[in-house]
Amino acid sequence: MTKSYRYLLPLGVLLCLASRSFAQLGMFSKEQRVEFTREWKGERFPDGRPKVPDVVLARLKNVTAEEAWAVLSSAGYNHQFEGGWKVVNPGERLVGRVVTAVFMPLRPDVNAVINDHGKKEDRKGSGQNSWVIDTLLPNDVLVVDLFGKIKDGTFAGDNLSTSIFTKTGTGLIVDGAVRDVSGISEINGFRCYVRDFDPSALAEVTLMGINVPIRIGQVTVMPGDVVVSDPEGLTFIPPHLAEKVAEASELTQMQDTWGHQMLREGRYTPGQVDGRWTKEMIEEFNRWAEQQGAKVRMKVE
Questions:
Q1: What predicted TM-score, i.e. pTM, was given to this entire model?
Q2: Is the pLDDT of residue 185 over 90?
Q3: Which of 102, 196, 227, 251 is disulfide-compatible with 145, CB 3.0–4.6 A?
Q4: Domain annotation covers residue 300
């Protein structure tokens, strides 16, 4: 996809929606958020964004990209992983509900309209990046499409990053850059994924939408997705598949733990553990899993 077409696609979607609602920046109404995430049947935020429960978020903290990929690809979601990030404060996994923001190269007449809508909606501050931060809630992860812009594409420095972390307790993902990395690195627990770093300030861009569909690399990201990091990169999980991914991951990890224990004890050979498990092995595993207090079970075929 060419860069010019990439910019036109989200703009075209937004303009098509303009005649229906001007209630929120980005021209994407609550009803449209519900419609475009209709597979989610659970609780939602007041603006329609899916609210995956905190208990499910906690269960996703150890999911690997491969475990998530197996579930997502089997459901037809083949473009949910994006790698190639630079990370500030690596370590603990980044997990949370996605809040999206999309920027485009500055065009004065369009930017004037956006600023007018910002005033009507009582958006605080002259910087459009701060408008997005004001919407954040605990366990949100702000995901920003800045079309890979590095110079003058720095969404946040240490001040805005402090605000983001205070509101969410999680981190920030930017398909662009951040500045003040020395300061950001001092925000203990704040995980920041970016394409690169630059000392410049954010300039020559316009905020075109909050909690609208965005593109991050090869992934279409929706508001309310659950993002999960691992050493390989970021996986964006549709909300209706989040619990299924957690269950599959827990089962895989329990199987690995039991298999390793069986090998150490000499109960089964590597070929048996790595191969198709017999009915007797599955039943033995299920009894062991129950003893561990786990809810996951293998089906006996």
A1: 0.84
A2: yes
A3: 102
A4: no
